[in-house]
């Protein structure tokens, strides 16, 4: 089904993929910065607030394998539509929460919806976009995600100022529902279902492709973990130094503008020079900015470090998606991507838990230095296993026999 490179236009993805992803991202992005404060209002300690936030990632992890089966049955467009609707339901559950258990259940349901939505669009782009346009298309998708996490916190900050923290939950419900509505009106011929992949063979594919998963899969998992640590760690550090929820949402939103600005540039870098030229700066940049965060003790230094962290993150816009698409074997796309995303999401889900454990035992600053060390390990692996060229014919994967 992959399109002809000469006839393909990235703009054809605007309505079926980018628009609903933006709406979904705004809803999710407005919510994530205020989850720790919402948990704290219900009596959570700082480590417990981190765990509640991490339940979004745990929900994503739990749904990764079932998501591949669902997409094979109903197709990518319908899977995205259903996921956005269920996300609205999960947020409504959290909105009505009177205990940490109910808040956590709603966040878990939201995370499961994120898994289905993300895998469906990833699978569609892997199949429908030619290799020559892959990095740019997926980087734009990464940029759309960043746009959501820029506009979302800004809207959230305004709503908290005008109303209260619950208004942010209502806002998230509305935007997720709008994403579902857009997909409802997308014609099937605009976003046709891709060929069904090998049903029920996820674990067999994972076993055969274990070299890819154990090397570049681990690199992507570390990168995903660092990015999650940024999403979770910045609000936690803001609480640690006494910033208000409104100020936290505002500063994180401002920093997110850098991610948005660099998204297309990242794709150009990857398509022209190769994937490593985005992956290495992101891994090393995020690693060392976590160490720098420990010296942020006031609003000015917090914003400065958040901006530098966003700069490092923005250089790698879409890199995890691109690596997964590059590695996915033909005819087993959904099954491989489900395993790949499971590994990445395992890193994503484990990171807040590890941060909470280290924070409880040694303090939040120690958790930041742990992230620095993990990122350096990821950079070493990326330097070893990522190809040095951009063109598929010139790639030098050490496991090229499985490509």
From TrEMBL:
Membrane topology (UniProt): Multi-pass membrane protein
Listed GO MF terms: transmembrane transporter activity
Segments traversing the membrane: 12-35, 47-67, 79-95, 101-120, 140-162, 168-186, 243-265, 277-296, 302-324, 361-382
Subcellular location: Cell membrane
Main location: membrane
InterPro entries (alphabetical): MFS, MFS_dom, MFS_trans_sf, MFS_Transporters, Sugar_transporter_CS, Tet-R_TetA/multi-R_MdtG-like
Protein's recorded name: Unannotated protein
Gene source species: freshwater metagenome
